[in-house]
Amino acid sequence: MKWGRDVVQLVMWTAAVACVSPLLSLIMLAFSAQWPFPHLLPSLFTADHLAKLLLSPRLVEAVTTSLALALLTTVATLLLVFPAAKAAGLYRFRGREALKLLALMPVMVPAATVTMGLHYFMIRVGLAGTMLGVVIVHTVFAVPYAFRILMYVFEIMGEQQEEQAAMLGAGPLMVFSAVTLPLVMPGMVAAATMSFVISFSQYITTFIIGGGRLLTVPLLLVPHVQGGELHAASVYSLVFIFTALAALVLLRAVVRHYYRETYFLNP
Questions:
Q1: Per residue in 169-214, pLDDT tens?
Q2: What pTM does this model have?
Q3: Shortest CA distance to 135 belongs to which of 87, 231, 200, 225?
Q4: What is the extent of the structural domain holding 7?
Q5: Separation of alpha carbons 47 and 83, rounded Å
Q6: Which of 41, 76, 109, 155 has the fewest CB atoms found within 10 Å of its own CB?
């Protein structure tokens, strides 16, 4: 019915405006020199401060550190989660439900509580203030989401294809590379995306565990927001958004290239 399509289009356009409006506000704020209340638009635009902020060595350091932490966290999360998610998704064993519950504990307990407990442990083992310590903590918070995603993927996939490949003479490595990995790759991409975003956006955990020694984009952004320096905060927010989007687009491109090269799929 036509009115039904109109309602759907209205809802979609409303959602699009709601998503784009904050980004447009950040862009206008980044280029505004004067935006007095209650004017709807800035009264004066300038780009004089952009070059100074974007070419700042602190921003380059923050972006580099944030990307390194997010990538290391993503790799560590996938390596930890893959075997556990496969076991929980495909097999029935004693303690299976306990494993599912244990994997969710970091997000069931307040983040500050988990971080403070881990901080005490990091101090005892000498990992406080190090990149390794921060990666471990970020991984703790990324594991619950990645685990759930991959567990459901394995539940849907089943193990029939792997068993058939093994019956046809494929070894464990061949089964993994030619059967298991391609089948779960969409779930791997979703889990990797979630892990990357979680790590890239961490503030309190990086601040506490890193002890101020590791400068990331959130650590650079938040003080400007708290200090009311909205021009700098808007520029750093845009850098934060577009850096994360660029990394995720690159990840998607790599996966598509993998599928095309391996299975000769059309782009």
A1: 878 788 887 788 888 888 888 899 889 999 998 988 999 998 888 8
A2: 0.81
A3: 200
A4: 1-46
A5: 50
A6: 41
**Same-domain pairing of 90 and 205:** yes
User: How many C-beta neighbours within 10 Å does residue 201 have?
Assistant: 16
Tokens, residue 15:
């959602």
Residue 24: how many other CB atoms lie within 10 Å? 10
Q: pLDDT tens, 76-119? A: 999 999 988 888 888 887 877 787 777 777 777 788 888 888 88
pLDDT of residue 80: 92
List Cβ neighbours of 224 (8 Å cut-off, separation of 6 or more).
230, 232, 233, 236
Looking at the structure, tell me whether residues 100 and 222 fall in a common domain.
Answer: yes
232: amino acid identity, one letter: A
Q: Which residues are CB-neighbours of 145 under 8 A, at least 6 positions away?
A: 107, 191, 194, 195, 198
Angle separating helix axes 131-157 and 181-200, nearest 10 degrees: 140
Residues 6+ apart with CB under 8 A from 88: 96, 99, 100, 147, 151, 154
> Which residue in the block uniquely carries the two structure tokens 């447009």?
24
Q: What confidence tens digit (pLDDT) does each residue in 20-78 have?
A: 777 777 777 777 766 666 666 676 677 777 777 777 888 889 999 999 999 999 999 99
Instruction: Tell me how far apart the alpha carbons of residues 237 and 226 are, in angstroms, rounded to a whole number.
Output: 13
Residues 19 and 131 in one domain: no
> Is 90 found in the same domain as 28?
no
The identity of residue 257, as a single letter, is: H
And the tokens for 97? Answer: 């439900």
CATH of the domain at 57: 1.10.3720.10
- If asked whether residues 192 and 240 sit together in one domain, one would say yes
